[in-house]
Amino acid sequence: MEIIGDRRFVEIPGDRLHELPPLLVHHAYHFKRLDKIVDMAAEIVESEDMLAEAAIDEEMLALDRRKLDLAINLVEHYKGLLLHWRWGDDIIEWIRQCEITFESRQELRHLLRGDLWPHAGRSSFVQLLEDKAVPHEDVNLEKAVGLRLTFRQPPPIGCFSNQFLFYLNDTVGSTAYQTWASRNPSPVSDLPPERFTVQVVTM
């Protein structure tokens, strides 16, 4: 085991550069019926009394515009959540493919434990993506994986409160990931990034 600073890296025999399967990611999340999603967001705005009622007709028009703006804002936050979830789903699938690769190579096989999948030790693959500085635009990889670990499928917008969409989903995803990663048995060891190559392919 090699120790650099406060991090430990597993030692891999030989000097071979290992090519990992490509990470296939979805660049964006598209709704089949955007109008339906906006209507559902408008119901959240209405049901949670996000705006006070107006007294006169002119104020009613302004209120309706503000409600629509809020609904669109909620949809944008929901869209960001779904994009993170999709990336998380893609990363989890990539980790599965990496496991197959590791199992097929003698010098890598001993690095993976056979515990119930996805074992927290697999967080080393997420750390590897960060170490390799793979392009991920505005997606936080830890939050993405955390959301995927939390939700087996992307929930519909009606499942969420406005508070979750505006404020809580960032911390929920990140906390879920940190809790999962903390289950990794000591000593926590990362994969040396200089020994692996990985390509990101946008779907």
Secondary-structure map:
Blueprint (H helix, E strand, L loop, with lengths): L1 E3 L2 E3 L8 E2 L3 E3 L8 H14 L9 H47 L2 H4 L13 H9 L9 H10 L11 H21 L13 E2 L2 E3 L1
Parallel strand pairs: 3-5, 4-6
Antiparallel strand pairs: 1-2
Helix pairs in contact: 1-2, 2-5, 2-6, 5-6
Any descriptors?
single chain; 203 residues; mainly alpha; 6 strands; 52% helix; 8% strand; elongated
Task: Please summarize what this structure is.
The chain is mostly helical and 203 residues long.
Q: What would you note in describing this structure?
A:
The chain is built from six helices and six strands; from the N terminus they run ββββααααααββ. Helices cover 52% and strands 8% of the residues. It starts with a strand and ends with a strand. It has a two-stranded antiparallel ribbon with strand order 1-2. A two-stranded parallel sheet has the order 3-5. Helix 5 (141-150) packs across helix 6. A hairpin with a 2-residue loop joins strand 1 (2-4) and strand 2 (7-9). The chain is mainly α and 203 residues long. The chain has one domain (28-202).
Round the Cα radius of gyration to an integer and report it: 21 Å
Shape: elongated
**Overall mean confidence score, pLDDT:** 82
- Give me the secondary-structure category: mainly alpha
Can you list the strand order of the major beta sheet? 1-2
Number of strands: 6
Domains counted in the coordinates: how many? 1
Distance between the termini: 37 Å
Tally the helices: what do you get? 6
Uncertain runs = none
The SSE string, one letter per element, is: EEEEHHHHHHEE
Biggest sheet, open or closed, and with what strands and sense? 2 strands, antiparallel
Estimate percent helicity.
40-55%
Beta-strand share of residues: 5-15%
